[in-house]
Amino acid sequence: MTEKTDILLGQTLSFRSDPFCNPVDDAVQIERQGAVLIRDGLVVEVGPADTITRPDHAKVTDYGEHLIMAGFIDAHVHYPQTAIIASWGMRLIDWLNSYTFPEEARLADPAYAGKIAKRYFDLALANGTTTSLSYATIHPTSVDTYFEEAHLRGLRALAGKTCMDRNAPDNLRDTAQSAYDDSKALLEKWHGKDRLGYAITPRFSPTSTQDQLTALGALWAEHPDCLMQTHISEQHEEIAWVSELFPDARDYLDTYEQHGLLGERSVFGHAIHLTEREQARIKEVGAGLVHCPTSNTFIGSGLFETARHKLSGQNVGLATDTGGGSSFSMLRTMASAYEVSQLVRQPLHPAQLLWLATCGSAQTLHLADKIGNLSKGMEADLVVLDLASTPAIAQRSERAEDIWEAIFPTIMMGDDRAICDVWIAGNLHQT
Ligand SMILES: Nc1nc2[nH]cnc2c(=O)[nH]1
Ligand SMILES: [Zn+2]
Question: Which of 147, 229, 302, 369 has a 20 to 30 Å separation from 343 between CA atoms?
C-alpha cells in the first residue's frame, strides 16, 4: 500500500531562526511559489515548487497565492471559560468571582464539559489554532472531556486539572491530597498518549495552600517531563494579595520556587509585573513566559514588554487566555500584541508576531522539535491563510510592496475568514 502523500502549493513561510535574534531576512524563508510535501503526517520537504519531489501517487492541492505556514499554538487558554468570553467591566479578582467561578462550577456536569470542549476546539480550529495548552476546571472529568475531544480530532494538545484548595467557592475546591491524587491519575492516563501531554496546574498561588503547592511540586518531581502551568504577576492587587498570603516568600515567583514549582518546564501566564530578581531567576532556569495581550488589555492588567524580554533571553510564547482574553483568534492576538508593543515603544515586526504564535509558543511548551514550524521532519499541523479575506484587507494587501506588507493587514485585521484551510498531522481538517 502506498503511504498517504500530499503536495500543497502556495506561498510558504518557514523560520530558519528566531527573528528576535537575527535579521528578518535571515530568519525567515519565504517561497513565493512554494510547495510542501507531506507524508504520514510529517512535513518531508519544503521548497520552491519547481524543485520539490513529486511522487506519482501524491495528491496535489493548489492554494495559489495563499500563505502556507505552521498552525498557531495557543500557549495559555481556559477552555472552560469559552461561554463567558467578553464579560464586561471587572478587574481580575472580581472577574474570577463573578463570571469565571460560577461558569467553571457548571463543568462538574461531564455532559456540559463535553459540549464546551467540543465548542472550544471548533472555535480554535476555525481560527487556525492547531495546539493549545489549556487549564481545565477542578473536576477531573473536565480534563477527560478535553483530551477525548482533542484525541478524536488527532490534535497535539495539552492540559491539566486546575487545582485550588482555598479562596475559591466550596464547590470548586479540592484538597492537597486530592489534587495530588487526581492530577497523578490524569497524568498517568493521558500524558504521552498519542499527541497528548499533561501539565500540572495549580491555578495561582492565592488559590493554593502551601500544602497543595508542596504536593504538586512532589508530583512534578516524580514526573519531570510534564509541564507545570500557572499564573504569575498579572495585576498589582493580585501581587499584593500574594505577599499577604505568603509573608515568608521573597516575591511571587518564590511562592512557586519554594514548593518545587519552578523549572525549565514551568509555563507562566501573564508575567507582566515581574521584579528584576524574578526575571533573572526565570531566565536562569529557562522557564517560559506567556504573553496574553487581549486579556491583559481586556481585564486591565498591564503591558507586557515582549521585545525587552526576548532580547534579554527569555522564552516567550503567545496566547489568547480566553475567556479573560477577548478572542479565540491568534491573528487577533498578534494584532493586540502589536498594539501593546507600540504602547511600550518596542514595535514588533510581523515576522516576530508570527514567530511568537508558532515557534515561540512551541518553545515554551518544549515541543519546538515537533510543531510550530514549516520544516522538514515537523508534524504537518498547518494553516493556510488567505491574505485577501475581506475587502478591507484585500485592498491594502494589493498595494503591498513586499511580502510583509502583504501579510501585515491579515495580522491586524484578519479573523476566522482568513483561515482558508487547516491541516492536522497531514490530514485536511473538515469543518
Ligand atoms: N486571566 C486569568 N487570570 C487568572 N488568574 C487566576 N486564574 C485566572 C484566570 O482564569 N484567568
Ligand atoms: Zn489564564
Answer: 229
